[in-house]
């Protein structure tokens, strides 16, 4: 779950990471009220989950009420790379002497946490990585050992952070690590991490992604979940309790089990198609669930074919088949189904589908995953089959 900047900053603050005083506003009047409360000058910042807000005109400095009015009214409702701004974060403006970069992620291959630190912040870190990779210090942190102040300071020295900022940076890195681990983040990034002329070091931006698998430990995350901007498909899937992720291809995918769903995406790719979604119907794929899954897929106007890939284990092929027949009675599908049904009771399942009298251009049964993928992709790509 990705947080907005203001939520990320509030999260940082809980772990003692210094951020600017500020508050979130939905209207121009609220923006002015916040600015008056925290004192001028302020920065009005668009809250959208996309980078480069500054360049897009979504971050403006304001010295008085009139300037807040102008900027807030321009920014609220603004479209930044397809994201409409619904809120702004108004914070006390900072004087900047230098801009750095710091982030923590999980390096799955190394089975360790990864700290990245650079004295070149404020710009896209991908740009720094491309132009001058040696400017980014990468340090693996063992989850058993953790990160202490001395190690953090060494990283700051290695990253050529000037000596006057090293202690401040090190202290923030230790707190960021604490936030990353105790706060169950997948990503905690500060860009820019600034040095003020006064010598203080401070987080000017916050990019936080929370590990949804840890949500049971964090009832307070519900407030974040409430502001998530899901697309219509994801909204519907959530209401129906499905494991669904929207993608931008044209082959709708339904599979049982996350592993099989991912393999299905790979096979579709391999034969030249693009998946419209990831959808795992799980172990108990019955009529209710298949109907819900097909409704969600059908909601997506990009879908040209629906690839149902079921390997029965606990899931029984006859149940799935009944589900599909029932679902096709209930939902007027915009795209044909190509199904590969294998495993427990697959034989009975295929018989049920054959006996249902569904026209062959609406439902095609294929013996293997690869055959089914080829057919689904051919249909999605507009080829006659
Ligand atoms: P992003 O472009 O979406 O990552 O937004 P950031 O929050 O990182 O801000 C982009 C840039 O705006 C920063 O790198 C700063 O140069 C500038 N900026 C943001 N807040 C302030 C501020 O309080 N004072 C000053 N002087 N510049 C700011
Ligand atoms: Mn930034």
Describe the protein's architecture and organization.
With 385 residues, this protein is an alpha+beta fold. It folds into three domains: 21-92, ATP-grasp fold, A domain (Dna Ligase, domain 1), CATH 3.30.1490.20; 98-222, ATP-grasp fold, B domain (D-amino Acid Aminotransferase, Chain A, domain 1), CATH 3.30.470; 232-380, 3-Layer(aba) Sandwich (Rossmann fold), CATH 3.40.50.261. It has 13 helices and 18 strands. Strands 7, 8, 9, 10, 11 and 12 form a six-stranded antiparallel beta sheet that branches. It has a four-stranded antiparallel beta sheet with strand order 1-6-2-3, with helices on one face. A four-stranded parallel beta sheet has the order 14-16-17-18, with helices on both faces. A hairpin with a 2-residue loop joins strand 4 and strand 5. Helix 2 packs across helix 3, helix 5 (149-158) packs across helix 6 and helix 10 packs across helix 11 (317-330). The protein is elongated, with a radius of gyration of 25 Å. The protein starts with a helix and ends in a 5-residue tail after the last helix. The mean pLDDT is 94. Residues 43, 51-54, 59, 93-94, 96, 99, 122, 191-192, 204-205 line the site of guanosine-5'-diphosphate.
Short account of what is shown:
With 385 residues, the protein is an alpha+beta fold. It is built from 13 helices and 18 strands.
Query: Which hetero compounds are present in the coordinates?
Result: guanosine-5'-diphosphate, manganese (II) ion
Helix share, percent: 25-40%
Low-confidence parts lasting 5 or more residues at pLDDT below 50? none
Shape: elongated
């Amino acid at each position: 779950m990705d947080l907005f900047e203001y939520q990320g900053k509030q999260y940082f603050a809980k772990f003692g990471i210094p951020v600017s005083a500020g508050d979130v506003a939905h209207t121009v009047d609220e923006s002015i009220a916040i600015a008056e409360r925290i004192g001028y000058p302020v920065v009005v910042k668009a809250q959208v989950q996309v980078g480069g807000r500054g360049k897009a005109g979504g971050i403006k400095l304001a010295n008085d009420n009139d300037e807040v009015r102008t900027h807030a009214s321009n920014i609220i409702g603004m479209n930044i790379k397809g994201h409409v701004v619904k809120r702004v974060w108004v914070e006390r403006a900072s004087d900047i002497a230098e801009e750095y970069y710091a982030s923590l992620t999980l390096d799955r291959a190394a089975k360790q946490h990864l700290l990245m630190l650079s004295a070149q912040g404020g710009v896209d870190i991908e740009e720094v990585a491309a132009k001058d990779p040696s400017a980014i210090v990468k340090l693996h942190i063992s989850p058993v050992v953790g990160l202490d102040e001395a190690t953090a300071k060494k990283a700051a020295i290695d990253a050529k952070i000037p000596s006057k900022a090293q202690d401040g940076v090190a202290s923030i890195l230790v707190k960021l690590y604490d936030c990353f681990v105790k706060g169950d983040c997948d990503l905690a990034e500060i860009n820019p991490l600034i040095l003020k002329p006064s010598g203080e070091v401070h987080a000017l931006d916050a990019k936080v992604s929370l590990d949804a698998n840890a949500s049971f430990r964090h009832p307070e995350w519900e407030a974040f979940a409430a502001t998530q901007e899901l697309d219509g498909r994801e909204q519907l899937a959530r209401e129906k309790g499905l494991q669904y992720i929207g993608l931008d291809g044209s082959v709708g995918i339904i599979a049982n089990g996350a592993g099989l769903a991912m393999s299905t995406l790979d096979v579709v790719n391999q034969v030249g198609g693009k998946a419209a979604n990831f959808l795992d119907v799980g172990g108990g794929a019955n009529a209710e669930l298949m109907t819900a899954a097909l409704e969600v897929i059908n909601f997506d106007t990009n879908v040209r074919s629906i690839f149902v890939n079921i390997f029965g284990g606990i899931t029984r092929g006859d149940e799935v088949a009944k589900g599909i027949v029932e679902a096709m009675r209930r939902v007027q599908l915009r795209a044909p189904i190509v199904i590969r049904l294998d495993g427990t009771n697959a034989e009975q399942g295929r018989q049920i589908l054959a006996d249902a009298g569904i026209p062959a251009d609406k439902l095609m049964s294929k013996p293997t995953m690869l055959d089914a993928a080829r057919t689904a992709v051919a249909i999605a790509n507009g080829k006659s089959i």
